[in-house]
Amino acid sequence: MTAVWQINEARFKENVKRVKDNQSIMAVVKNNAYNYGLDFAINTFKEMGIDTFSTTSLHEAIAIRKIDADATIFLMNATDEFELLRTYDIHMTLPSLAFYEQYKEALFDVKVHLEYENLLHRSGFKTIDEMIQVIEDHRQTHSPKMTITGLWTHFGYADEFDVTMYQQERDAWFNVVDVLVNKMDMSFDLIHAQNSASYFREGHVFEHHTHARIGIALYGSRPYASLSREAFPQALTVSANVIQVRQVQQGDHCGYSFAYTAEENNTRLAVVDIGYGDGILRTRAQHEVMINQRIYPIRALMMSHMFVEVDEHVQAKDKVILYNEDLRIDDYTFKGVGANSEQLSALNLDSLIKEYR
């Protein structure tokens, strides 16, 4: 028996259709499409009308091009492998004034998106003045030179409702767009800023923007808790198996480093064939699983196994559900287990059986 990672393809498509909602979407497919698989994600998104993708890995960007010859592909991390960008027609972020000054001549014929740092402080131009400096220098530069095709930022606080940070970064970004597009008469093929949280807070793609850049919502997880569970069908099921049921006595220690000590005699513990080596977050062990439609608490998590306290209704070979449409990734995120993307990207698909149905 082996634990299984399984996708319901019809439910996945249903969710993508709801999220897209006839808007222009740039699908984030970084980290192997949040572990859903690049081939599956690109082909499914394309079928659902999405033809623009972003990732943080040049290797993945090239893989996307091999899957879809016509896609628009945006690389969110800068690279100096400019010949590959030209060969595979990949757009890339321009992350700073210093990067431009260092690679100005080598960037010829590379399509770049000017990146504004904003409050996340992860990457990007620190000020609009730096962006204007590059634009003016670019206008004065004779060919060959890079092609400015896009403008973008990232909202780091769109899922925070009890602070004003989202409004601050939103206003700062709108000022950047206004100055560059309206006052400097710049034309961009792509302007994108909204992540899943911002997109659903606003209810639409921003005016003067070409796309919302959506990640986690496309994979069936709510970006914040007040959204309806029913509006985001989760297509993913992660299941394991009861290998055997052990009976332990009061005071018996079970699991690594006294992870669990039985409080009563004749405590029944199911040994389940999944653990943190398969990518189950340690914080997930503070919660429950489902066996035969009943809920049971996890008592200890090990590398390849876990202990679940059960009753007489559980036997060897029973299926154990860690995640499905009822035990959702985002439900546990809001309980503090970890970010939606944290659990998805942690899952070890080399040790789990992977199925699309």
Indicate the topology:
Blueprint (H helix, E strand, L loop, with lengths): L3 E4 L1 H12 L4 E4 L1 H5 L3 H10 L4 E4 L2 H10 L4 E4 L6 H6 L3 E4 L2 H7 L7 E5 L12 H13 L6 E6 L12 H19 L6 E3 L3 H7 L9 E3 L21 E13 L4 E2 L5 E2 L5 E6 L15 E4 L2 E8 L4 E5 L8 E5 L5 H6 L5 H7 L6 E4 L1
Parallel strand pairs: 1-18, 2-3, 2-9, 3-4, 4-5, 5-6, 6-7, 7-8
Antiparallel strand pairs: 1-10, 10-13, 10-17, 11-12, 13-16, 14-15, 14-17, 15-16
Mean pLDDT: 96
- How much of the sequence lies in strands comes to 15-25%
- Spatial separation of the terminal alpha carbons: 19 Å
Largest sheet composition: 8 strands, parallel
Summarize the structure.
The protein is of the alpha/beta class. It is built from 11 helices and 18 strands.
List keywords for this structure.
single chain; 11 helices; elongated; six-stranded antiparallel beta barrel; alpha/beta; eight-stranded parallel β-sheet; 357 residues
What does this structure look like?
With 357 residues, this protein is an alpha/beta fold. Helices cover 29% and strands 24% of the residues. The mean pLDDT is 96. The longest helix has 19 residues, at 165-183. It has eleven helices and 18 strands.
